[in-house]
């Protein structure tokens, strides 16, 4: 992709240094760590947070909710996209529902999730409802892009629908998933954390951020933001590395 061709590690590093310097200058100008703490104070706070015994449980708690949220959204997106491509009635029937999910403000989803579910499960529903339309439309678009000549040939030879799904649509689904996996997983993670801030479940990044806010510890809030950014980068790197590995191993291709 173009963004990877244009990517230059040295320029990225320079960009990071520039924004760190800008952050430090703003800290000096504002001169109020309640509004904006210094980068050094934030990094010290990050070090303190990651050395706490509860840190790993907090991280795993949020990652678990993010995984289940994404898994639920992906499962429904795969099943419904296949049914939609096989049956035009189902496709048209689902259009109002998908448009409704896309139009509903995120805060409305948050409030409904908190009403319907307990504090631990509400962030899972928030992430799933927000990401589902993106996954559904992305996968459906990729299935529709299947060469019409192949579909026509399968119809001519009376190939069973189950075999068409298994050997044509499922590979197209995984092909489409590879294109949107990283962005949707990252979005799910951010929405789940946002939901945790309001729901405050046990062992969650969101509840830790909320706690820092209650104590007016802006440095702690910034520290958790840094940790979230680092986690996102690590997850994105793992996903991209796995994609490259699959590309080299033909036997792993779906």
TrEMBL record:
<keyword id="KW-1133">Transmembrane helix</keyword>
<dbReference type="InterPro" id="IPR035906">
    <property type="entry name" value="MetI-like_sf"/>
</dbReference>
<dbReference type="GO" id="GO:0005886">
    <property type="term" value="C:plasma membrane"/>
</dbReference>
<keyword id="KW-0472">Membrane</keyword>
<protein>
    <recommendedName>
        <fullName>ABC transmembrane type-1 domain-containing protein</fullName>
    </recommendedName>
</protein>
<feature type="transmembrane region" description="Helical">
    <location>
        <begin position="93"/>
        <end position="116"/>
    </location>
</feature>
<keyword id="KW-1003">Cell membrane</keyword>
<dbReference type="InterPro" id="IPR000515">
    <property type="entry name" value="MetI-like"/>
</dbReference>
<feature type="transmembrane region" description="Helical">
    <location>
        <begin position="221"/>
        <end position="239"/>
    </location>
</feature>
<feature type="domain" description="ABC transmembrane type-1">
    <location>
        <begin position="59"/>
        <end position="239"/>
    </location>
</feature>
<feature type="transmembrane region" description="Helical">
    <location>
        <begin position="12"/>
        <end position="30"/>
    </location>
</feature>
<keyword id="KW-0813">Transport</keyword>
<keyword id="KW-0812">Transmembrane</keyword>
<feature type="transmembrane region" description="Helical">
    <location>
        <begin position="67"/>
        <end position="86"/>
    </location>
</feature>
<feature type="transmembrane region" description="Helical">
    <location>
        <begin position="122"/>
        <end position="140"/>
    </location>
</feature>
<dbReference type="GO" id="GO:0055085">
    <property type="term" value="P:transmembrane transport"/>
</dbReference>
């Amino acid at each position: 992709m173009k963004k990877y061709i244009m990517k230059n590690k040295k320029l990225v590093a320079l960009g990071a240094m520039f924004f760190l310097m800008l952050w430090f200058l703003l800290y000096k100008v504002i001169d109020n760590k309640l509004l904006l703490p210094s980068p050094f104070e934030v990094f010290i706070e990050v070090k303190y947070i990651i050395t706490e015994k509860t840190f790993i449980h907090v991280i795993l708690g949020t990652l678990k909710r993010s995984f289940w949220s994404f898994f639920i959204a992906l499962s429904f997106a795969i099943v419904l996209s296949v049914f939609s491509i096989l049956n035009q009635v189902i496709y048209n029937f689902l259009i109002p529902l998908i448009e409704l999910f896309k139009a509903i403000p995120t805060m409305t989803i948050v409030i409904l999730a908190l009403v319907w579910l307990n504090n631990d499960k509400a962030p899972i529903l928030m992430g799933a409802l927000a990401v589902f339309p993106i996954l559904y439309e992305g996968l459906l678009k990729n299935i529709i892009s299947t060469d019409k000549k192949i579909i026509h040939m399968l119809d001519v030879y009376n190939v069973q629908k189950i075999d068409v799904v298994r050997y044509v649509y499922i590979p197209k689904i995984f092909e489409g998933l590879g294109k949107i996996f990283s962005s949707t997983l990252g979005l799910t993670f951010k929405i789940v954390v946002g939901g945790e801030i309001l729901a405050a479940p046990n062992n969650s990044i969101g509840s830790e951020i909320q706690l820092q806010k209650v104590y007016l510890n802006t440095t702690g809030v910034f520290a958790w933001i840094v940790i979230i950014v680092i986690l996102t980068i690590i997850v994105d790197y793992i996903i991209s590395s796995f994609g490259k590995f699959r590309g080299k191993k033909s036997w792993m291709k779906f």
